[in-house]
Design goal:
The model has no long low-confidence stretch (mean pLDDT about 85). Helix 2 crosses helix 4. The protein is extended. It is mostly helical. It has a domain of about 120 residues. About 65% of the residues lie in helices and about 0% in strands.
């Protein structure tokens, strides 16, 4: 407030997702509904079915790949299934209609590919850092950060090159010729 003038005032409704019933949103052709169903009131026994319904709804929306990845990532993060539930999910997916099954399977497969790629990158980074410490010792923070930004392919190349390095200058020179994106 400025004197007796109201400069800006917000009014909004509070919505508690955990009080909403996921079944009320399962037929709404809306990407937000697809994502937020994962956070709504879900009976423990329904978790695999809800995840499948979220992904089924997402599949029917035919969004561009980036939006599909974003929303499916939200669903996967907020509706993680244990081993038993994952088996139930896979069984239900196998019984889905062929077209839905293909699209949902592609979404789930992309999660697995991204997870594997991330795991490979982290493993390669850890190996390079360990090998670098043993071969040449500590680096300046800027060089260390540059190594962390390297792609998987560049990390693998550095891992090979480190076998021939004997001093910190070798690493610095290699990094200068193989610039990582800032």
């Amino acid at each position: 407030m400025f004197g007796d003038w109201v400069i800006l005032e917000f009014q909004y409704r509070v919505i508690q997702l955990n009080r909403l019933r996921w079944r009320d949103f399962v037929r709404r052709p809306n990407p937000i509904a697809s994502a937020l169903m994962a956070k709504m009131a879900i009976a423990p026994s329904e978790r695999p079915r809800v995840k499948l319904e979220c992904l089924r709804l997402l599949a029917t929306l035919r969004l561009d790949p980036a939006r599909t990845r974003l929303i499916s990532g939200f669903i996967d993060a907020y509706l993680q299934l244990n081993a038993r539930e994952a088996t139930q999910f896979q069984t239900a997916l196998a019984q889905a209609q062929l077209q839905e099954q293909e699209v949902v399977t592609e979404i789930v497969t992309s999660w697995m590919r991204e997870g594997l790629q991330q795991g490979k990158h982290e493993e390669a980074l850890a190996l390079v850092l360990r090998q670098r410490r043993r071969r040449v010792g500590p680096l300046e923070a800027a060089c260390e950060e540059q190594i962390h930004r390297l792609s998987l392919e560049a990390l693998e190349a550095l891992r090979e090159a480190l076998l021939d390095f004997t001093q910190v200058a070798d690493v610095v020179t290699w990094l200068q010729t193989h610039q990582a994106p800032s």
